[in-house]
Amino acid sequence: MTKKKRVVIDNATLRSLYSELVAGDLVVGRLRLLPSEEHLLLDLRERGVELFPPALSQLASRSKTLQVSLYARQMLPLTWAVHDIHGLQQAMAEYHQHKIGRVVTKLDRKNGGLGIHLWSSVEEVFNQASLGVLPYPFVLQPFCPESRDIRVVVLGDYVEAYFRENATGFRNNLHFGGQSKACDLTAQQWSLCQEVMARGRFPYAHIDLLVLPDKRCYLGEINLRGGIRGANITPADYRARQQAIHAEVIGNG
Predict the structure, then answer these.
(1) 0.85 cut: is pTM over it?
(2) Does a structural domain hold residue 219?
(3) Cα-only R_g, the chain
(4) Which end of the chain is more exposed for a tag (fewer CB within 10 A), N or C?
């Protein structure tokens, strides 16, 4: 007798059925996991349990340093994922060789601009990290003072893009006083969005693009969801579109 496929749509049910889930069962929705529990995603996939969004996108959403590994080709050159003092020493040597001045660090699991710090040099980063003030892991990259930030929201066939700019600070996040303005993506920018979503297996995404003065465009960050302050889409419409995507996956499962 064929066993009926189970569909789990909330974290409480997932916790209660975790040890019973088998190949072919389906878990829909982003899992709420502590950092020390992320190995559960691997266990579920090894058992053949289907996850939507896929496990890779869920892990990438949680870790900025993982994104550096996934998107080395699409990010600003000389962006490093720094996991320990040895990695920082390697990054320092590279930055000195290229005569990089000011740098930015991003703490691995902080969002909304809360984990972004501007430093006068990579030596300053080294000082603070070696003294235990700056915790590992973190992302390190050159500071681009004239760059622009574009937030792209992709939900199925809904795509919205808008600049985020801050006239009084380097953080463009709206929580830090940034302002938003709708914009149209170029073909190159939209191609980059599609490329990074495919690489990380993102079925929908919030994507931050870094646009340099010479129009070169790089991936800043990507997440399965983020704040929509400054966007035209309403919270109700956002939820409805995401739920429709989930419902289609359940219906096709």
Answers:
(1) yes
(2) yes
(3) 20
(4) N
